[in-house]
Write a structure and sequence with these properties.
Elements (H helix, E strand, L loop, with lengths): L5 E10 L19 E9 L4 E8 L4 H11 L8 H5 L2 H9 L12 H21 L4 H6 L3 H5 L13 H10 L4 H11 L1 E5 L9 H13 L4 E5 L4 H15 L4 E5 L6 H11 L4 E5 L7 H11 L3 E3 L6 H9 L5 E2 L8 H15 L12 H16 L8 E3 L13 E2 L2 E2 L13 H6 L6 H6 L1
Parallel strand pairs: 4-10, 5-6, 6-7, 7-8, 8-9
Antiparallel strand pairs: 1-2, 2-3, 4-12, 11-12
Length: 433
C-alpha cells in the first residue's frame, strides 16, 4: 500500500449565495450564505485528500487564513506520520503554543483545525480504499481509543470506561452494518421550515416531504410569539399528530424567555426545543430543561468536547447535536460520541450547510455500529441543498441516509464548483457583483 507524502495544501474560500432564497435562515442567522474553507491535500501519488469547515459567509476568509497557517503541520509529511498517532496529530493542530492563544480549542482556530483534520481523514480513508465509516468500524477498540484525546474529559469518562463501552458493542456489529446497508440511517428534514419562508411555501414543502416519506420535521422559531404559534400550528396541522415536530430557536432567547416561550409552544408537542439560549450557557440549558417540560437539544455551536462534557454532567440536554466541523474533526467527535453513550443521551447530529450532511452520515453510522449500538430516539438532520456540488453526495431513500460506498469522507467537490463559487473572483460572484 502506498504511503503518500503531502506535497502541497490548497485552501479555498468557497461561498454559495443561499441568502437570495432565504435558505438556512433562522431567527438569528437571517441571511446566511453557506460557505466553506475548503482544503485540498495534494500528494506525490494519485491520491488527494479533501476537507472543509463550514461558515455562513463573512469571516470565511479568517478560517481560510487560519487553515493556511495550520497547513504547515501536514505539508511535506508522509501520511503514515500522521495516521500512526492521530491523537498526537490532532493535538499538534490545537496546541501550537502561540496560535492556541486565539482559541484555545474554540472559534476560528478550531474550525480551521477541523478542515485539516477532516482532510487527513479523507486521505487516509482513500488510501485504505474504504468509506470513512467503514474505516472506523474496522478498527479494534484499542485503535479507536488511541484516536481520542481524553485531556480535560477524563473526569467524565476514563480511557478504561471508553474501552469497556466499545468492547461491549463488539457483538452485533455486522448485524448493525447489514441493517444500515438494508434500510439506511433515519433522518429528519429542516428544509420545510426556514425562518424566511412564507406560510404558503412551508405548507407546500410539508406536503412534498410527507409524500417522500418524511416523518420528522424541524421548524425555525424565535419570531414574535404570535408568529411562532401560527407557524407551529400550520406545520402541526400539515404533518399530523403522528409525525415528530422539532423546533429550533437558534440561541434567540434569554433563559427566562426561553422557558416561557417553550412552555407556550409545548401545546404543539415538540419532540425537542433546540438551542433555546446561548450555546455557552450550560446551567441555563439545565434550568430550561427542568422548567419547560420539553426535551432540550443543543450542540452545533458547542466549541469543544469540554462543553459537551459539562452539558452531560449537568443533565442539561436530552439530545446531543455534534457538528462535524465545529468540533476539531473526526477525533473530537469520537470523544463526544463516547461521552454521550456513557451518559445515555442520544446523538442526533447537526447537518445542512454545505458538506455537513456528507460528513455526519459517516459519524452517525459509526455511532450506531460501534458506540451506542442503538437507533432509539436517533435521527440525523438533512437539508436538500448544495449536494449537487459533491462527487459523492448523500443519498436519501424513504427519509433515511443510505450508507456511503465510495472511499473517503465524501467531501470532494467538482472542479467546476471550485472555480464558479470561489470568493470573490468566481463566476457566480462576479455575476452577482
Amino acid at each position: 500500500m502506498i504511503d503518500p507524502t503531502i506535497t502541497r495544501v490548497e485552501v479555498l474560500d468557497l461561498r454559495f449565495p443561499t441568502s437570495r432564497e432565504s435558505i438556512g435562515s433562522d431567527a438569528v442567522n437571517k441571511n446566511p450564505d453557506y460557505s466553506a474553507a475548503y482544503c485540498i491535500l495534494r500528494t506525490d501519488s494519485e491520491l488527494t485528500g479533501y476537507g472543509l469547515t463550514f461558515t455562513l459567509g463573512r469571516g470565511n476568509e479568517l478560517c481560510v487564513g487560519a487553515a493556511r497557517y495550520l497547513a504547515g503541520f501536514v505539508q511535506n509529511r508522509r501520511l503514515s506520520a500522521l495516521t500512526d498517532d492521530l491523537r498526537a496529530f490532532s493535538r499538534q493542530l490545537t496546541d501550537d503554543s502561540q496560535f492556541r492563544w486565539l482559541g484555545p480549542e474554540k472559534g476560528v482556530t478550531h474550525l480551521a483545525a477541523a478542515a485539516l483534520i477532516n482532510a487527513v481523514w479523507d486521505l487516509y480513508a482513500r488510501q485504505q480504499n474504504k468509506p470513512l465509516w467503514r474505516l472506523l468500524a474496522d478498527m479494534t477498540s484499542d485503535q479507536i481509543l488511541r484516536l481520542v484525546d481524553f485531556r480535560y474529559i477524563d473526569d467524565a469518562i476514563t480511557e478504561q470506561e471508553a474501552l469497556a463501552l466499545l468492547n461491549a458493542q463488539r457483538k452485533g456489529r455486522e448485524e448493525r452494518i447489514a441493517d444500515l446497508e438494508r434500510s439506511g440511517y433515519p433522518a429528519y428534514t429542516t428544509s420545510v421550515g426556514w425562518f424566511g419562508f412564507s406560510d404558503e411555501k412551508v405548507r407546500s414543502l410539508c406536503h412534498e416531504a410527507l409524500a417522500q416519506g418524511w416523518q420528522h420535521f424541524k421548524l425555525k422559531v424565535g419570531s414574535e410569539p404570535a408568529d411562532d404559534l401560527r407557524r407551529a400550528a400550520l406545520v402541526r396541522d400539515e404533518i399530523g399528530g403522528s409525525s415528530k415536530l422539532m423546533m429550533d430557536a437558534n440561541q434567540r432567547w434569554g433563559v427566562n424567555e426561553a422557558i416561557d416561550r417553550t412552555r407556550e409552544l409545548a401545546a404543539f408537542h415538540p419532540w425537542w426545543m433546540e438551542e433555546p439560549t446561548s450555546p455557552d450557557d450550560i446551567l441555563g440549558h439545565a434550568r430550561i430543561r427542568r422548567e419547560s417540560g420539553v426535551r432540550i437539544a443543543t450542540g452545533e455551536h458547542c466549541q469543544n468536547r469540554v462543553m459537551f462534557k459539562q452539558l452531560l454532567q449537568a443533565n442539561a440536554i436530552d439530545v446531543c447535536q455534534i457538528d462535524s466541523c465545529r468540533l476539531a474533526g473526526v477525533n473530537e467527535n469520537l470523544a463526544v460520541l463516547l461521552m454521550a453513550a456513557k451518559f445515555g443521551v442520544p446523538v442526533c447530529p447537526h447537518a445542512g450547510g454545505v458538506g455537513l450532511c456528507e460528513y455526519v452520515q459517516h459519524l452517525s453510522a459509526f455511532d450506531y455500529i460501534a458506540v451506542s449500538g442503538s437507533l432509539e430516539n436517533r435521527v440525523t438532520e438533512y437539508v436538500d441543498h448544495l449536494h449537487e456540488h459533491f462527487v459523492d453526495p448523500v443519498r436519501i431513500r424513504n427519509a433515511h441516509y443510505l450508507l456511503p460506498t465510495q472511499p473517503g469522507y465524501s467531501a470532494e467537490m467538482y472542479p467546476q464548483t471550485l472555480k464558479d463559487y470561489s470568493f470573490p473572483d468566481g463566476k457566480v460572484w462576479r455575476d452577482l457583483a
